[in-house]
Amino acid sequence: MTDPVLSVKNLVVEIPTRRAVLRPVDDVSYDIAPGEILGVVGESGAGKSMTGNAVIGLLDRPAHIAGGEIWLKGKRIDNLRADQMRKVRGKEIGMIFQDPLTSLNPLLRIGDQLEETILEHLPVSRAEARKRALQALEEVGIPAAAERLGSYPHEFSGGMRQRVVIALALCAEPSLVIADEPTTALDVSVQAQIIALLKRLCRERGTSVILVTHDMGVIAEAADRVAVMYAGRLAELGPVEQVLNAPRHPYTDGLVGSMPMASAGKERLRQIPGSMPRLGSLPDGCAFHPRCPKADAECRQNPGPTLDATGGRAACWFPVSQEVSA
Amino acid sequence: MSTLVSIRNLTRVFDVSKPWLNRVLENEPKRLLTAVSDVSFEVEENTVYALVGESGSGKSTIGKMLVGLLRPSEGEVEIRGVNLAAESDAKTVDQIRSDIQMIFQDPYASLNPRWRVGDIITEPVVARGGDATGLAAKLLEQVGLAAEDAQKFPHEFSGGQRQRIGVARALASNPKLIVCDEPTSALDVSVQAQVLNLMSDLKDDLGLTYLFISHDLTVVRHMADVIGVLYLGRLVEEADPDALFTTPKHPYTQMLLAAAPRMDQIGREVEPPKGEIPDPINPPTGCAFHPRCPLATDVCKQKRPELRYVGTTRVACHHAEG
User: Fold this and answer.
1) Which domain holds residue A301?
2) What is the model's pLDDT at position B163?
3) B317 inside domain
4) Nearest residue of A to residue B159 by CA position?
5) Which of A190, A195, A254 is nearest residue B276 as measured by Cβ atoms?
6) Do A275 and B261 touch (CB under 8 A)?
7) The dihedral sign for the CA sequence B54, B58, B61, B63
8) Contacts of B266 in chain A (CB under 8 A)
9) Which of B322, B292, B314, B319 is nearest to B303 (CA)?
10) Residue B264 DSSP code
11) Using the beta-carbon criterion (under 8 Å), do B276 and A159 form an inter-chain contact?
């Protein structure tokens, strides 16, 4: 494998509260190769967005990185000063948020927003920036791009707005893009357009992507590898075919089983009993054990080990055997 | 089986004009948004009829007209042969109304935060002067919660549990028909499975009929007996799930099915659909789908296609064939 673009090592994010110190991200490690799309799935509150925000240095106080390291292209970035991080953000790491309306400035024409980003990060003249802004809009498939440079965000539809956000995230040519639920607010047909666009652009430029989503269908379609998060920890990490078709962690297995599959009939859905524990009241040992069919005394005391699975990892004492689920 | 709900030529127009004075000063005409346009379908007793469509397709508006939260602009909704908007006998109206209940999308917004769960659940009965002794406990157990939960407040529950409370409330008045407007879209996948299973069980146990409104095709396929596909306020195709998913007749349905991400097709490369839903204030002439349709010809631009049978499927397309 070539050197990873991003390397997250034993990342811990803590939120001190009056009662206790919460750990929304607990000992998470992963690497991303150049041009790779890493899907991060999990239920709400699993820590998927928090991990992304930690990487890009956008944790809201009092949340902070309490341990671990983040390396971007061989440079450590988790201990940078705010002004240094500002240069990395946008230049090296682009960001795409869920709601395109809140990530665009409603008072600025989108041409100006694109230009501002390009001028901030690339050593080019204003005229050149203008040209690149136009190019960026054309690349994301906005019709009549030259005229649209002068439009305000509210004049675009939801799908078009998300295209503008993608153009913004990519215009400084970052090596990594963090896309946090980029299609959740969009309709099915527009979602397909945006996913295809994201895949095409990243392939053409060799940009790596962290694709945070709760939609397993989107993961199957777009990701090369998947990280499954549960209660702040990495439950399983591996190539997408393996994680979806032969999951090792019982949580992944339950999650995949509870999807109403397009191919299955009307039989009852498999369900995982209960719901994810709150951060303030995490059980001892493996956080999944109260909902796990295989849990025993070991699981109640010690968190799951980091097990090597073929091409990936699963944090479980009793991983689902490949034969049964295959 | 008998027909429980019969919807005929249902149309709803919203006036989205600026205020009168602005219109006069700026010399602008009225702006009318047709959310639902000439929709007809029937729902059989003890079945699940699903309405699917993207945002702005009018699925929620139909649900609201069915429960009586909105009045139809044209056409009628008949429940067991009674047209609620026209019926004058108060007793009949009251009887039919208590037969219809609704489950809402957002379990955080649809429960009054200041009420105890027991009061929320029994309100549909108490409001009609009925006797609610022991009802809350019975319903809570029926939806998989504990009887003691009646004393708690909504904020003490998780999203999935709140949606169970919403289901319990809908069951309180012994309804025949429950309109479910995106009942699981606000829930996580593993919790969604719990709520869908619960709804299927209750339907079988209590002989309920659901009008199931959703944008999620996989969920709809799992739940529905009949699926109606809406586009820009028009019913474009109606079929049973197997027929709809294996041999979709309408080009829009075909596009929708091709675009939906699927877990069983890893690394699929899709040719994404073209264009977006047009502005419902100025819908295209003829067939509303023609600007995005690969089959469109001149007739599609001029004449709006009627729903017609192709095999067992009802489809509104000039070019659909068996």
Assistant:
1) 226-260+269-326
2) 92
3) no
4) A275
5) A190
6) no
7) negative
8) 220-221, 240-241, 244-245
9) B319
10) T
11) yes
Model-level ipTM above the cut of 0.90: no
Q: Does residue A284 fall inside a structural domain?
A: yes
Q: Is residue A160 part of a domain?
A: no
Say if residue B241 is preceded by a cis peptide, omega within 30 of 0: no
Distance CA A23, CA A231 (A): 9
Residue A187 lies in a domain: no
Tell me the pLDDT tens digit for each residue of A227-284: 999 988 889 999 998 888 888 888 998 888 888 775 556 677 888 888 888 888 888 8
Instruction: For B206-245, write each residue's pLDDT tens digit.
Output: 999 999 999 888 889 889 999 999 999 999 999 999 999 9
Residue B141 lies in a domain: yes
Across the interface, do B218 and A261 touch by the CB < 8 Å criterion?
A: yes
Report the number of distinct structural domains present in chain A.
Answer: 1
CB-CB neighbors (< 8 A) of A250 in chain B: none
Tell me the per-residue pLDDT of A59-117, one tens digit each, with 9 for 90 and over: 888 899 999 999 999 889 988 888 888 888 888 999 998 888 888 999 999 999 999 99
Domain-embedded: residue B43: yes
- Our count of domains for chain B comes to 1
Among A219, A225, A258, the strongest candidate for a mutation testing the B interface, having the largest count of B CBs within 10 A, is: A258
The answer to whether position B297 is within a domain reads no
Examine residue A161 and state whether it is found in any structural domain, yes or no. Answer: no
